[in-house]
């Protein structure tokens, strides 16, 4: 087991390194992006531009620039944005992390609860109209572009029905830190939570339902029923436990992607200054240091969660041998 | 001695004609096809998808003959007839200062059925044109993705060793790169060229970018299938018969992984359509002069509170298309292997 | 069966709980009531919403939004009056005792610093602080250093800036408070350049590293805090003494939130969570906003235009450029792009300039445009229109592309990301034919326009600002001559007007709008409290409740 974990970790580091190189190359190949020019203002002297270029080491060869950027990012942690010299990259990501965490954790709680509920209900009521109805709803949830759903949510809650009691409490888009005002933090996040979780509720409900149905025909379930256990107990203690393997492993991956900045579209639509929005803004201005940092941040979470999931999967299901 | 005959009591007399009939065994494909055809829901979804495709590709007909409108370019000074009266398409705002402007809202008639956008263009016609681009990119990138991923997975799974290591490492790399970030990065870079090698307005850029980004999602399950098929007895049998590598790949393994790919295909189209709309919404997907459902949603963002149909209509089209593809994907999977548990991919 | 009923019951409970939760949320909505009007002069807090600022460091800040705040924080030797209209462009003494004496050859400027000036930390303001500010600009490679390179010795200093190095052209005497500035070549706009916040004195030895909001101030306010991309707070500077031209300021405190989304900012003002927002309200929401708050329109000095590269076919033909000018419907464009918040123009300069003479060389005439294209033989000529990926630039360029197509050219639109746009079109290798551009004035002097954007002598191969690559012996010569004019007398202004007309007759540009900006106020701010200073926008010092 330890050897497996260590091997995964080494693999992870290599992958992250390769990603940084890939990102650096992708953006270096963009002509026309001259941070020196951007720094030097609207009306620069050629000498000013040259001085700025030298000051930021932009006239050095590629590998040196790459090494400098990595050093500034990880070791001295004073990497500075190209778009705004006062913005230090690492603190910016640190400041954006709680926002993304708030959004993603809340949505995750919602989608875990509701997808389990939906999946279980669909199985319990299988054969009636409830099952296909729930599954159609789930499919519709998967089929909606999340940014469009967010826009429609904004339209309804901030404009069309804002004056009714249903949505008058919805504050304008934005984020209020939990430490500053917990109630406002909560209010600002409700609609984004719901929007982000719709997609995942649909998906996980279907996965869970499929797994539950498969488990339902297993012998141990019949044994449990034959023993006289109530259907709820059978569902919760026996069926759910055995069906959660896929659910858990998929959840780990999705959560990792979202924490790493995958909720970009939701953050942009709802104006939440999280890691996703930071990434999006930096891509708009071709701000290479920030892009690098956010890509590494995102890739880190994806790779680590995938490693964690593999380990957890192996532990949950002894049939799976770690390779 | 008593004669016990243990043979048949009498010869079975075949009906005339039956004797010459060949008893044909049904291949798994035929069986799957039969199951699919009996699945009404899946057929309905397929029908819906085909309907949407036909509607969108007849966009020029709609634009010319029904709406009488030109969809690309500006139409600021345009006028249209509503209930017999001529009305300006872009109307001056009200209020004391007389500022603000409003494109015309839904007329629910042939002209400007669901209204106009900020440039004075008929939104319904644009949604249909946009559908052409979105569908073309969606199906195209899914096809390219599945094709390449299958080819790569076939080679990796079959030859193993170095090929497998290299391919799988590269796939891991792409897979670890956050999907949207990779798509956005590649698109941004390709669209920022000073001296464009590829025309930035070409639909090939989003198609190829999206195809590349999703290759690992098809590669992994297919490679798994190749690896397990490789161990099967009939492959061993073919090897012992002296079959060449190429024959093995194409005759033995490919048909058996095809079901995986076929199930993945409609699901991938659904995914690519959603991705393309997201990229276009962010401004780095389809570029002017083309339109796609995503770009129209972006157009509708600024008009969201007064002319919501501009943003809502393309979204509804996306939902319907992706929904039909998902249902169809389910149906195909159930038809091909009713007991299989295939790991679904999603956006 | 019982199993199903129990699940159904559970579902019902969950539904009721959810409903109760929503109702609880609805009834505890954070309602805000508008403030009761208090003392009409000073008031406790102004809550403003800006879309963005770049820096709060005087030697770095280069956006209108930053200057809106910093005008009241970092004073300069000369400043502008807190009045409305054209009088707001008049230069008056700020930290200097009076307007400077200028030598006959226009190369030597003599100031005297006011006595008893103190920074917000109590330290004295001395003459050498001005020199340090200019040096600091070079040391920090601030965005405005290009303006000061005409000071004698500045170019040499800029090549190798060091903290102890000297700029020979600035001589100061801390005992007498005298500041003498010698120029290498005379500049008619030097006084306006001195009034830029880049030249605001800062305590000697202040580090060139960017300092947002921590440098001690000389104005009525100082920065209390700054949270990058989120907010900043200004409070009163207790060491500030108001002068004839610089008032004390009404708000005791100014809380600025930085909100990029225009809808959110507008909504905050409507809800009463903010008093003022400078957000560009989307055109379809303007009528709605008007009824829910106070809307003030402000035209600052800007021009939006399409440039045509006179070195690239088909725009190397005068007739084609003229045709384009005839073809665009400027009036309709104001409605389309800004929802009416703009004025059509065919001039280079905006109407705020005393030299402005309204030009109407190209009244809208599509037929004539088509004829000109025919005569020039440019029918079917392939044209790429360049623009940047910002909604108004895309909208106007889309319209422009259709116009070009309607008069017989074969035009397509190419949208570039915002970050690379100007460097791309400013690069001779792009061979860009035509595209979108705008200019917002840095300081109120025609040189800021003609010298930068239309002087053939200043064309460069890269980072060029003259996107039309326009050059003309006559106008080049006249611009160079006018550089030396110290004061904008009526005679000088007349010459500027003539240059402008000559340039527009050559039509390197198709100017189309001077944009008007909405300034949106909560109803608690009475209309009489809202004053617009032409250069710096809404005068926050004079706002009241």
Overall, the morphology of chain B is: flat
Q: Quote the distance from N terminus to C terminus of chain B.
A: 80 Å
What is the beta-strand fraction of chain B? under 5%
Mean pLDDT of chain C: 88
Low-confidence stretches of chain B: 340-347
Characterise the protein shown here.
- With 323 residues, chain A is mainly alpha-helical.
- Chain A is built from 13 helices and no strands.
- Chain A starts with a helix and ends in a 7-residue tail after the last helix.
- By secondary structure, chain B is mainly alpha-helical.
- Chain B is built from 11 helices and 4 strands; from the N terminus they run αααββββαααααααα.
- Chain C is globular, with a radius of gyration of 27 Å.
- In chain C, β19 (532-533) and β20 (537-538) form a beta hairpin.
- At the A-C interface, α2, α3, α5 and α8 of A face α1, α4, α6 and α12 of C.
Question: Could you give the topology of this structure?
Answer:
The complex is a heterotrimer of chains A (323), B (347) and C (545).
Chain A: H1 2-28, H2 35-39, H3 46-55, H4 62-75, H5 89-124, H6 130-143, H7 146-160, H8 182-216, H9 219-226, H10 231-262, H11 264-270, H12 275-284, H13 288-316
Chain B: H1 28-38, H2 40-57, H3 59-66, E1 79-82, E2 85-88, E3 90-92, E4 101-103, H4 123-159, H5 161-176, H6 179-191, H7 204-230, H8 233-240, H9 245-281, H10 293-301, H11 309-336
Antiparallel strand pairs in B: 1-2, 3-4
Helix pairs in contact in B: 1-11, 2-4, 2-11, 3-4, 4-5, 4-7, 4-9, 4-10, 4-11, 5-7, 6-7, 7-9, 9-10, 9-11, 10-11
Chain C: H1 2-27, E1 43-50, H2 64-70, E2 78-80, E3 91-93, E4 101-102, E5 108-112, H3 128-139, H4 154-159, E6 170-173, E7 178-182, H5 190-194, E8 221-227, E9 231-236, E10 251-258, H6 262-271, E11 276-277, H7 286-292, E12 294-299, E13 302-308, H8 318-327, H9 330-338, E14 342-343, H10 366-376, E15 382-388, H11 391-406, E16 410-416, H12 418-425, E17 434-440, H13 447-453, H14 473-482, H15 490-506, E18 509-521, E19 532-533, E20 537-538
Helix pairs in contact in C: 8-10, 9-11, 14-15
